Amino acid sequence: MSRGRPYVRPLDLKRGCVDLSHGAGGRAMQQLIDELFVPAFAGGTAVARGDDGAVLPELAYGERAVIATDSHVVSPLFFPGGDIGSLSVHGTVNDLAMMGARPLYLSAGFVLEEGFGLGELARIVASMGRAARAAGVQIVTGDTKVVEQGKGDGVFITTTGFGALPAGRALSGAHARPGDRILLSGSIGDHGMAIMSLRESLAFETEIVSDSAALHDLVAALLAAVPSSSELADPARGLRLLRDPTRGGLASTLNEIALQSGVGIELDETAIPVRPQVAAACEFLGLDPLYVANEGKLVAVCAAADTDRALAALRAHPLGADAAIIGEITDDPQHFVQMRTGFGGRRNVDWLSGEQLPRIC
Amino acid sequence: MSRGRPYVRPLDLKRGCVDLSHGAGGRAMQQLIDELFVPAFAGGTAVARGDDGAVLPELAYGERAVIATDSHVVSPLFFPGGDIGSLSVHGTVNDLAMMGARPLYLSAGFVLEEGFGLGELARIVASMGRAARAAGVQIVTGDTKVVEQGKGDGVFITTTGFGALPAGRALSGAHARPGDRILLSGSIGDHGMAIMSLRESLAFETEIVSDSAALHDLVAALLAAVPSSSELADPARGLRLLRDPTRGGLASTLNEIALQSGVGIELDETAIPVRPQVAAACEFLGLDPLYVANEGKLVAVCAAADTDRALAALRAHPLGADAAIIGEITDDPQHFVQMRTGFGGRRNVDWLSGEQLPRIC
Question: In chain A, what are the domains?
Answer without folding.
Answer: 20-52+61-165 (3.30.1330.10), 181-348 (3.90.650.10)
